[in-house]
């Protein structure tokens, strides 16, 4: 069975830490793919970043 885990953080280092913690719990051969994206939005003159990743793995 395939599964996905989605991560969403405001800072890229936080995303990196979250994904690394999750990957540390996977067994060899479970990881299939990682998709990464960055979104930028402006609100009241302030730039807001959204760093996200989707990990596809075998359960």
From TrEMBL:
It comes from the Bacteria. Keywords: Plasmid. It holds the Pfam family Spore_Cse60. InterPro entries: Spore_Cse60 (IPR020296). This is Sporulation protein cse60.
